[in-house]
C-alpha cells in the first residue's frame, strides 16, 4: 500500500498548452520488449512542463509527450512514438497490467494526437485483455487526449482501478475519471463525481474509509479550494472530509520506457 502523503496532490492551474489523442490498436507484445527501447535523440523538454498536467501521484508521461512535441517542432517533421508504463502486479501476483501511450506529434500542436491502450495479463495462459479509453470516439479529433494509467488493484486483487485522462491541447480542458475492471470478465465501468460543480477532477485512489468507493478531488478553475469526494461504483457521490486514498499492488519500476520513435510517413 502506497503512502497516503504521496497521493494527496493538488490540482494545478492550467494556463499552459495541453495535449491530444489518436487511437491505434497495438498488438500484444511481451513485457520484456520494453527493455529494448529504440534509439532516438534526447528529447528536449521545456522547463515549464510539469510531471503531470494535474499534478497526479500517478502521472501520465507528460514530459515525454512534450519532448516529442518539441522535437516535431524543431525538426519540422511529424513524429510517431510509443511509450510503456511500469507493470503493476496484483497483490496475489496473479494479474499484471501496463499502459502503452502513443503520440502522433505535428509541428502545429493543435493537430497532435495522444492516446493509449491498457494491457491486462491473466493467469493460466489466458489471452491478454486490451482496453481502450471509454467515451473515446471512433474517429479521434486532432488535439485530443485519451490516456489510461494503472493506479491500483483492490486489496484482494479482484478489481483494477485505472486513471483515465481526457482533454485537449491548447486549452485548460483536462480532467480525470476512473475505470474499474473486474477480473471475472471484460466488463469495465466508468466512475466520476456526479452532481458536483467542477472544472477538473483528480483521481486519488481507493477510499480508506469506504474501500469499495473511489476518492476524487475536484476544483473549479481559478479557485484554490478543492473538495474531496467518495464516489461509489454506482456513481453515488458523498463529501469526504476525513478520508485519505489507499492503493494496492506492486509496481515493477517507476519510469515509462520508450518503445518506438520514427518519422510519420503518410
Overview of this protein structure:
The chain has 266 residues and is mainly β. The protein has a domain at 4-171 and 249-263. The protein is built from 2 helices and 16 strands. It has helices spanning 4-7, 62-75; strands at residues 79-84, 87-89, 96-105, 113-121, 129-131, 144-153, 159-168, 174-182, 188-191, 200-207, 214-219, 227-231, 237-239, 245-246, 250-252, 257-263. Strands 1, 2, 3, 4, 5, 6, 7, 8, 9, 15 and 16 form an 11-stranded mixed β-sheet that branches. Strand 7 and strand 8 form a beta hairpin.
| Overall body shape | globular
Query: Can you write the helix and strand succession as a string?
Result: HHEEEEEEEEEEEEEEEE
Radius of gyration: 18 Å
Mean pLDDT: 85
Residues in helices, as a percent range: under 10%
Number of E strands? 16
Low-confidence stretches: 2-38
Give the termini distance in whole angstroms.
46 Å
Largest sheet: 11 strands, mixed
User: In terms of structural class, how would the helical and strand content be classed?
Assistant: mainly beta
Count of separate DSSP helical elements: 2
Strand content: 35-45%
Task: Provide a brief overview of the structure.
This protein is 7% helix and 37% strand.
Relevant terms:
single chain, 266 residues, mainly beta, eleven-stranded mixed beta sheet, five-stranded antiparallel beta sheet, 16 strands, disordered N terminus
